[in-house]
Amino acid sequence: MTVDSRTRWLALYILCLGDLMIVLDTTIVNVALPSIRLDLGFSQTSLAWVVNAYLLTFGGFLLLGGRLGDLFGHRRLFLIGISLFTLASVACGVSTTQGLLVTARAVQGVGGAVVSAVALSLMMNLFTEQAERAKAMGIFGFVMAGGGSLGVLLGGVLTDTLNWHWIFLVNVPIGVAVIVLTLRLLPGARGSAAGGRLDVAGAVTVTASLMLAVYAIVNGNNTGWVTGQTLGLLAAAAVLLALFVGIEARVPAPLMPLGLFRLRNVATANVVGILWAAAMFAWFFVSALYLQLVLGYSPLKVGLAFLPANLIMGAFSIGLSAKLVMRFGFRIPLAAGLLVAAAGLVLFARAPVNGRFVVDVLPSMILLGVGAGMAFNPVLLAAMSDVEPSESGLASGVVNTAFMMGGALGLAILASLAASRTDSLRASGHGPLAALNGGYHAAFLVGALFAATAAGVGATLLRTRQQVPAGAPAEAGATS
Question: What is the pLDDT of residue 469?
Answer without folding.
Answer: 39
